[in-house]
Specification:
The structure is a single chain. The chain is built from no helices and 20 strands. By secondary structure, the protein is mainly beta. The strands form 8 sheets. Strands 7, 10, 11, 12, 13 and 14 form a 6-stranded mixed β-sheet that branches. Strands 1-4 form a two-stranded antiparallel sheet. The protein is rod-shaped, with a radius of gyration of 33 Å. The relative contact order is 0.15.
Amino acid sequence: AGPFTDIAGETLSTYNSPALTQDTWFQRVDTSTLNTIACTATTNVIAVIVNNITAGVIAADETICEGGDPIAFTETTATVADGTVTFQWQSSTTGAAGPFADIAGATTATFDSGVLTQDTWFQRVDTSTLNTIACTVTTNVIAVTVNNITAGVIAADETICEGGDPIAFTETTATVADGTVTFQWQSSTTGAAGPFTDI
């Protein structure tokens, strides 16, 4: 129903619209001039419907121990779209820049990754489908940092006389860890199976 306005400089029988960010309707006014008399007729109206979509926001970065299960990822801001929205979670183990690969079956707004053994980055691809046209956007990337630690090796078994002072225990293989390492020695008088108590 309009109102319609002339598009400056567009006077050919065909028209190539620039990129659009909102629904827009078009028509063409045809003019026939005969003996200085101009008569006009208007074509049918055509619609270009823009399938707008704004990606949701997912949360949140986490740090877990190796083999830990991160808290499920949630959506803090919902996807806004004109069409029907679907989701596909993706992951990368090489960094926030990807490459990312689809996670099979991970097609809901939230996602629980399960146990992880290495740093992993996640994002979600949001798709809006309207009139069979699918438009996609990608959410922010979240990182799960895995705090890996491999225990050191201490030495060595000893036998001493009652009341004797064992040789100091040493480390033959250092602890390997991603974070800052601290130590707590424990002892047991009941056997190798413990229970152990802090010294």
